[in-house]
Structure formats: C-alpha cells, structure tokens
UniProtKB/TrEMBL annotation:
It holds the Pfam family CRAL_TRIO. SMART domains: CRAL_TRIO_N, SEC14. It comes from Fopius arisanus. Residues 77-243 form the CRAL-TRIO domain. GO terms for molecular function: phosphatidylinositol bisphosphate binding. One of its GO terms (cellular component) is membrane. The lineage of its organism: Eukaryota, Metazoa, Ecdysozoa, Arthropoda, Hexapoda. Gene3D superfamilies: Alpha-tocopherol transfer (1.20.5.1200), CRAL-TRIO lipid binding domain (3.40.525.10), N-terminal domain of phosphatidylinositol transfer protein sec14p (1.10.8.20). This is Alpha-tocopherol transfer protein isoform X2.
Length: 271
C-alpha cells in the first residue's frame, strides 16, 4: 500500500528504501509506521532518503530528550485545560490561497507566573501534531506562522532562555516533517528583536530569510498577507469570533486525547 502513495513512479525506489530502513531500525525506536506519516517525511525532504532518515531520527531523539514537552500529554490535566481555554496556538481552519496552513501563535496570552513555558510549548505541539495528523499540506505547501506579540512582557521574554530557543528552532527545521514558508512577528515592540535575534542565531540561512518582523500596526499585514475568509473577526476577517476557533481546538484535543497520549511511545529505545 505504501508504494501507491508515491507522487510518481520515480519515487518508488525512495519509498522502498526508506521503508526498508524503518524495518531494519525498528528495534532502535518506536516510530510511526502508517503510510501517510512515512510519506510526509519523504515529501518534506523532497524524497532524499538520507535527509528523511536524519529528520526522522531527530524527530524521535527530540521526543526522547524533551520529556517536558512530549510526556504526559493529557489535555484534560487542569494546567493544560487552562492553556487550551486561552488559545495560545491556533491553526486556522482552512489553508490559504497557496495551500499553506496558517497558524496564529498568541505567545504572550498566558501568565508566566502561572504557566511554565514547557506547558505552553507542550500545548502548542499537541495542537500542531493534531493539525498535521491528516493534513498533507504542511509537507507539500508548508506552514505560515504568525506570532502575535500583543501583551509581551519582560516575564514572557525571560521564559525564552537560549536553551528553550535552541530546542524550538531545532524542532522547526530539523525534526518535524513540515516546510516553514514564513515566520511573521506582528505587534512586536522593538526590544523583542533581542529574542528574535537569538532565534536567528540557531537558524539556517533559509529559515533566517523567512523570518520577518512587521513594524507598526498589524492591520495592514492581516489585510494583505492572509485571506480574510480565514481570519477570525478580531483579526479583521470573516471567519467568526476568535472564541469559536479556541473552542474548536480545545474540543479537538480533548476528543483526540487517546491518540495524543499514544504519541508518547514514539521515541528512541532505551538501551
């Protein structure tokens, strides 16, 4: 069945080679073995088998090393429920005109005194995993991320240590089977550039070139860069109230709780 997923016959050899690699290394890691996920890693690496092997290894290695992000993924825990009610990570319900998934990250919506950055990231990655679950667009057309910095404070900035930033950047460009088309920062005060520059220090040149800080009001950005049909009313769009989108993803993670918990097994084997 796997071979039927190839974009064309020229990719069959890559698919078969990658499948054999997964079989041969199955004792070293517990990995996804469904056709869709396997093909996502190949697609995002343009069917370069060696790159796909490295990305899949990195994917499992990070999930093993970063238990604070990937373990105990229970959306019904009180601390997670509170974060999902706030809505820090919100993929829009449809793709844009270029087929890309658009995600609004309200990275300063939480209270740093109440929420650890590990739980904020965990909540975001749970929704990201769910958004990517059946969506081929992320590995073909990519993701456009919008970081809404409204309400940013020194306490928010202090949560973003160089270690956290390095791990996040590695997840984006080295682990997840997705193509990042743009990272857009809006409503960002000047001093946020200090944090963004730390992010850039861990990025490759391609991702650096796709990281954009939009000065001034975010109104023009949302009017010109994102289809209005996708955006919640609070961002100038026609897709209904923002609360509807928050409720949608909160319900989605709750309904998919068993699947999210099962993802904890995908890690490198313990020696």
């Amino acid at each position: 069945m796997l071979l039927l997923l190839a974009l064309d016959k020229s990719h069959n050899c890559s698919l078969l080679e990658f499948l054999l690699f997964l079989i041969e290394t199955s004792a070293q890691r517990s990995h996804f073995n469904d056709d869709f996920t396997i093909q996502r890693f190949l697609r995002v690496c343009k069917f370069d088998v060696e790159r796909a092997k490295k990305k899949m290894y990195n994917y499992h290695a990070q999930r093993t090393a970063s238990a604070d992000w990937f373990a105990n993924r229970d959306p019904l825990l009180p601390e997670m429920q509170n974060l999902f009610e706030l809505g820090p990570f919100l993929p829009l319900k449809d793709v844009d005109d270029d087929g890309r998934i658009v995600v609004i990250l309200r990275v300063c919506i939480h209270n740093p005194a109440q929420h650890s950055i590990a739980n904020v990231i965990k909540a975001g990655l749970m929704i990201l995993d769910l958004a990517l679950k059946d969506h081929v667009s992320a590995s073909v057309y990519g993701i456009s991320a919008i970081f809404d910095m409204t309400g940013v404070s020194l306490d928010h900035a202090l949560q973003m240590t160089p270690s956290v930033i390095k791990r996040l950047t590695h997840a984006w460009q080295g682990c997840y089977p997705l193509r990042i088309q743009s990272l857009n920062f809006v409503n960002a005060p000047v001093y946020v550039n200090l944090v963004i520059n730390i992010f850039k220090s861990f990025m490759d040149e391609k991702l650096k070139s796709r990281t954009l800080v939009h000065k001034g009001s975010s109104k023009e950005f949302f009017e010109t860069k994102v289809p209005q049909r996708l955006l919640p009313e609070e961002y100038g769009g026609s897709a209904g109230p923002l609360q509807n989108l928050i409720n949608y993803w909160k319900s989605a993670v709750e309904e998919n709780s068993p699947w999210l918990k099962s993802g904890e097994q995908y890690r490198l084997a313990t020696p």
